[in-house]
Predict the structure.
Amino acid sequence: MNIDEAIDGGTEGAVSPSDVVDVALELFAKKGYSDAKLEAIATKSGMSKRMIHYHFGNKRGLYLRSLTEAVHRAYPDPKELELDSSVPVEGVRKMVDAIWTHMVSHPKELTLLVGESLHNNAKLKNSAPLADASELTLHLDKLLMLGQDAGAFRPGISAEDVFTLITSFAYYRVSLDSVMKNLLDIDMDRPENLSGMHRLVMDTVLAFLTSNIPATGQSSYLTPEVSDEPQSAAEIYFSDGEFN
């Protein structure tokens, strides 16, 4: 008999914590933190409230676990971004496509993250990161610096800037779909509009990178800082003739 069975009389051995997180994520995304009740999560998942408290501590603990799961599902695995391309423009195009395609396939997870950003139930600004995004942005940074060194991309743009553009379009689809339908009669869920948004984000990112806007001397739009000794991508990522 496992510990779940020992604590709860052996009636819930088939229900795992991950099953509960699946249900909780869906209900938190649909109803919000306040209106998603533990009773409903327990009923739908098949795990008692007692066992939910055992595994997650309380409702907030389950909510934080759901947010963490949403991030891991909604953002691509860094390995998916290890794209073979020696041409910066084509490499960025492939990477934008990979990030966008992955994110829009997880609307439920994006909805939950939008709700948290609006209502701040988990107080994430004062919490540890839900996930480590450094490896994800590293792949994009490599392409950006190679493109800047080659003169294909303008300077002063970071991976965080580009990632913000991509994710903004993805979050927009789930957060303002009803407003777009009401004001502009655009159904964001129609296949042709999903395809159009795909083209829009691709063209926006590439136009942003290749435009002739004068350099400001800053390294990023979102984290402005002036580097006294700017490094080239070759200096950072190449050693002994090998790409790191």
Q: What stands out?
A: Residues 75-213 form a domain with the Tetracycline Repressor; domain 2 fold (CATH 1.10.357.10).
